[in-house]
Amino acid sequence: MPSKKPEGKGSRKAVLGRLIRMLFSFYPAMLPVALVCILFNAVVSSVPSLFMQNVLALVEQSWQTGDWSAVGGQILGYAGTLACFYGASLLAGFAYSQLMAVITQGSLAKMREKMFNGMQDLPIKYFDTHNHGDVMSYYTNDIDTLRQMISQSLPQLLISGVTVLTVLGVMLYFSLWLTLVVVAGVVCITFVVKRIGGGSARYFIRQQQAIGRTEGFVEEMMNGQKVIKVFCHEGEAEKEFDAINDALFADAEKANRYANMLMPILNNIGNVLYVVVALVGGSLLLSGATNVSFSGLAFGISIVVPFLNMTKQFSGNISQVSAQLNSVIMGLAGTQRIFDLIDQEPEADEGYVTLVNAKEGEDGSLTECRERTNVWAWRHPHSDGTVTYTRLAGDVRLYDVDFAYEAGKTVLHNITLYAKPGQKVAFVGSTGAGKTTITNLLNRFYDIADGKIRYDGININKIKKADLRRSLGMVLQDTNLFTGTVMDNIRYGRLDATDEECIAAAQLAGAHDFITRLPQGYDTPLSGNGASLSQGQRQLLSIARAAVADPPVMILDEATSSIDTRTEAIVQQGMDALMTGRTVFVIAHRLSTVQNSDAIMVLEHGRIIERGTHQDLLALKGTYYQLYTGALELD
Question: Quick one: how far is CA 445 from the chain centroid?
Fold first, then answer.
């Protein structure tokens, strides 16, 4: 599979270019209209200077000739023209504001959608290696800086930039000498912006990164608040937060110090430039110098006065450009982080074997069909164009499997085992022995380094991951409930399940009784990961969710660890019914839950050191015997 090019990384110019292309792809018709409105308003801003020059030239001419008869009518004509321009500018401004509201919020919605949809395709490894709070920062702080840049900074930067170019053109039209004075001032402004703006840009980028680290730490502390209080770790947590918060303060303070320093300096340079233009213009008037311009206009008061206004307008817009640059830089820092998330390599899936509904003929042959038949088959296309169907039975075999989360740190060594259809295989051993890692490999959350895993005789690397996982049911030690009703959370296992099927699954798991005692029964709303329920009740719902999925293979990872002994006895009956006829992998610390397993694997340091039935392992009097008799305890 070809890798995605990480376009988000690189220079700010590359990030800005990609963002603009993306905005045009979101709104190919609306955005150009908004840009035309912006450009029109920017050009109209230079009209008053032309109007003033014409009026002053008319008054100056009438003063010299003494003929004032036509002055009033001509001035009214100029005023009418100016009013038409401003009326059109008002309409363009209104249209622009409405369009930008849609473009800004719509672009953010589409960007969040791209981020979230892309995140769904990321491998589990990404979430295991990235702080969840930092990931959340993409959707909050980074999106907010992008919003400010799209809605305010970029449009204002464009308006100011076009205004500067328009005014500069009018200046050249009026007087070359005075324009050269203004250009000299612009050189000074550019030098200041480069020296000070470069420092602020560097620290604004560091500020965005520090915000992500801060939010990640806060999220981690919120999740671990009970542990913090139990172990009286508040003081240490405060010290760690202070260190992270101080680092954020240092970066933000330096970034804003540079940014706040820039505007006063630029304003004062603008004021000095205004004075210099007035002095030069007055000197040229007194010396009787001839005007050098593209217009051929005579040098006089009608040139100097509007030129002074344009100088103020010019320097003010230069200052606006400089001020918006900081917001743009901060926005681009957030945008680059967003693109980095979007550009993460999706989970690779080279599988081509799919899971389909099937009908079984009298001769035992399988035929693919659309309707749900509760008979599943692996559809296996071959290179010669033929297709074979293998009934989904739940035969899982591992051959000489090695695995490492990190290169050079192998956690599973030469694992070989098999689970025939309908068998129950249990894994026991100390924490870190590799029990959960095996189930992660069955789901292909991670891929093995060496060896083979076959599912119904098919190498699982050939099976599409979505279809593989659809054939596996999993109940984890850590429960996850979602915002919605109790019924919604059970139906999460199979979205097309009926209410009756969900209720039957709850009865099977032993959850029906407590659900009927809830205020609204199955319609009781849940939020905050089911905070209103006990840990045992949440686990029962998790088991019911797996039951409604009705998969041929079940993985129970400490599924009853959060249930008390009395509840466990009730649940065990439902669990036994759930496991009947299925291939089951069980990870348990309570050895009482695995005694009836067809095979028990004892793992230590990533190796299977003992295997057999409960009675076989007791007779062996090895590690399992010591665990069972209490001579050795699980971690």
Answer: 21
Cβ neighbours of residue 247 closer than 8 Å, sequence gap 6 or more: 210, 213
Angle between helices 30-44 and 71-120 (to 10 degrees): 150
With a CB cutoff of 8 Å and minimum separation 6, the contacts of 418 are: 395, 396, 397, 398
Q: Which residues contact 143 (CB under 8 A, 6 or more apart)?
A: 108, 111, 112, 334, 338
Residues ≥6 apart with Cβ < 8 Å to 150: 23, 103, 104, 107, 108, 331
CA distance linking residue 261 with residue 241, whole number of Å: 29
Cβ atoms 85, 26 nearer than 8 A: no
Sign of the dihedral defined by the CA atoms of residues 52, 53, 55, 60, in that order: positive
Separation CA 623–CA 628 (nearest Å): 9
First to last CA, the chain: 42
Dihedral angle over CA of 391, 394, 395, 398, nearest 10: 130
Kindly report which listed range (90-104, 286-300, 372-386, 593-607) carries the lowest average pLDDT score. 286-300
Q: Quick check: 443 and 469 in contact, CB under 8 A?
A: yes
Output the six-digit token pair for 306. 């509007």
168, 174, 182, 310 from 318: Cα distances, Å: 11, 20, 11, 12
Confidence (pTM):
0.74
Give the position of tokens 């399988």. Answer: 366
Strand partners, 452: 399
Nearest to 583 by CA among 555, 560, 611: 555
Q: Scan for tokens 């139990």, then name that residue.
A: 230
Q: pLDDT at residue 314 above 90?
A: no
pLDDT in tens, 425-450: 999 988 788 888 998 899 998 888 88
Phi, psi of 424 (to 5 degrees): -115, 115
474 pLDDT higher than 80: yes
